[in-house]
């Protein structure tokens, strides 16, 4: 199970407990195992090992294999971006791309603008670099999930989009879920509308599988050479075999068709979890997601987050605490949480929602000290 970096010790303990048999784990944000293209990846693996040229098993260029960068370029151009393969650095997952962009743009002590709810591993990275996350639109640079936000499952608001479009500061644009919008016609990423100041992060982890760790960073031309130097000093290059397998796979499948299948698959799961939550806990609020893997839940009660998580585990269900995703969340603020529909079987959503409802009632209504003594 994916571990959230920077979690408090009690959160780590709860996440380990969430892996216990019988616990319905609605946290984690993992893609569905059933959608991994095992047969196609196995065939690609065999072909690249039998190719004879040795590229898959040899050292490669720091910026990544040329044909894979060409394929990434084609996909970005189809969305309207004016990019070339020379603008792309292939990375070991989106997290390394985010790390490179951060190091390129932000000196120690700088402020970085973030959305009100955002990707927790980005917050951990920023704090490890001695940066201070602040609300939009402030910050020397801005980290933003334009097309689809994790955890809210929504696009960047019109107000924030216009505000950031007017500014001249650099943008770190995390597009990890950009292919998984449930409906077409979403707003274009800043890579399209503000390419000269956008550092665009992408990955195949959500649409193919995370185990291969193939991501990329698109950098403005002025930063191209420095980005390559930073990548080289970090790890020389991304994994040659993983790059070759992904490149071969893309050359033998209709990837757009695969993405369409994934969109329908995850939208169906979102609908089933949404219905289960509405039925069991009607007081909880959420917007039906525009894509991605999760529901972002808002409540009217401020409960002890740790106690609620422990009570949920006692009932046999787990979730991601909202504080993981939020900066400057004040004491006494209403409780928030992320529930993921991507990994657990939909057949368990109803039971999971009922268990959450029982834990929530126990968290909100505490016994009085007098009743405890009776």
The largest sheet, given as strand count, sense and whether it forms a barrel, is: 7 strands, mixed
Number of β-strand runs: 12
Mean pLDDT: 93
What is the ordering of alpha helices and beta strands? HEHHEHEHEEHEHEEHHHEHEEEHH
What is the 3D shape? globular
CATH architecture of the largest domain: 3-Layer(aba) Sandwich
Kindly report how far apart the N and C termini lie. 42 Å
Which stretches are low in confidence, meaning pLDDT under 50 for 5 or more residues running?
A: 368-374
Proportion in helices: 40-55%
The DSSP helix count reads 13
The third-level CATH topology of the largest domain is Aspartate Aminotransferase, domain 2
| Tally of separate domains | 2
Strand content: 5-15%
Q: For this structure, what is the CATH class of the largest domain? A: Alpha Beta
